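Example record

The entry below shows one chain as it appears in the dataset: sequence first, then structure tokens.
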Amino acid sequence: MKICINVECPIDPKFQKFGKQSRAKDGLQTVCKYCSNLKSKLYKQKMRATSQKFRDKDKSYRDANKEHRKQLAIDYKNNDPIGYKTMYKSYRDKHKDQRNASAKIYREKNKVIIAEKKKLKSASDISRKAYKRYQEIRNLYITSTKDGSINPTSIKKLREQQNNLCKYCYTFLDMLPSRKIQLDHVIPLSKNGKHIISNVVWSCQRCNLQKFDSII
């Protein structure tokens, strides 16, 4: 069994993997892939810190192969999700101060944008709460006015009575997707209409929205 020549290699010999090397007798490198990648990484870090030429070359490569590098990251994330999470967590912990400093600079430069986003978020939260409250009140009203006459059998019979046509524009309902076929209250619930079979008709979504809360 081939073993990495690096005595400080943290990988168990059973799980060591080796890259190809045509000049070697066995066709494999003398160090495992982990140690080889680590050595390459350390070399690049050293060159980035000392050589402007290397930095320019590295930047041009990254810019030219942006999509390829992005796809490699996606593949790695999909193939080894646990390893990706571990790597991402270690990166965040290692660069915590740097990330905080970058976030602080961004907040100082974009105060207006951040303030606008906060306003939009608070407005959307209020809208969601108001809509949720409206739905609760509407459901309570439906519960208090229904008499049990609306059930799968009765609404199917109602559709047959309408000859499978929209009550308002006479569009053939089978030609529409199911999400665009709706039950409409003839006298709207907002105008004290009741949730009973005699107060509902089948309609298309377009007619239902155009009618809104009016009485035809």
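Notes for this example: The mean pLDDT is 87. The first strand starts at residue 18 and ends at 20.
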